[in-house]
Write a structure and sequence with these properties.
The protein is built from eight helices and six strands. The protein has about 220 residues and is α/β, with parallel strands linked by helices.
Amino acid sequence: MKTTAILTDIEGTTTDIQFVHRVLFPYAYEKLPAFLREHAEAPVLEPILEQARDELGEPDADIETLIEAFRHWIEQDRKVTPLKALQGLIWVQGYSQGDFKGHLYDDAFEHLKRWHQQGVGLYVFSSGSVKAQKLLFGHSDFGDLTPLFSGYFDTTTGPKREADSYRQIALSIGCPADEILFLSDVAEELDAAREAGMRTCLLARDARPEASSHPVVGSFDEISL
């Protein structure tokens, strides 16, 4: 079967999930109050704050109420679109100041680079915002990797566990779904991608499941196109 494109998740797939939970989330949690108070009137924040008010069901929520809500969503690891957008803006600060770099597994870097050289289109689908995705790959341990990728998708496309999201991605990529290989560490995401016609591969870096309806690998080294 021809592989025209590879669609990859980030957390637990290309990147240690602990990087997100031990570095990125705590950084955003700490910096968020001062960032919002300082930039509350900035045009770039206007749609984010409006979406947050809609999510809360409080159209008149003030900045302190929103700060509390955003921090609560971080604590709950909620996949809320305005939170993801705000975190991306805060992480710009951390990456640009060199407070941290984007983590990538060695095997992920080597194979992404190789597949790009072979002419395979590379795309990302993550619950983190497109801005956050580009920041991670643009300030990675291996330098700026954004030239490797042809496109990025986040929850504005749709939930990661719904087949329609993957149908939309296939349309955007512009090739048949069965020529796209989706890589993830979450079986429910892979189920949705397969329902949309994509081929799938489960990354089980820590422990292989006893049973899986998807091909299972321990690293990118085991992936065959």
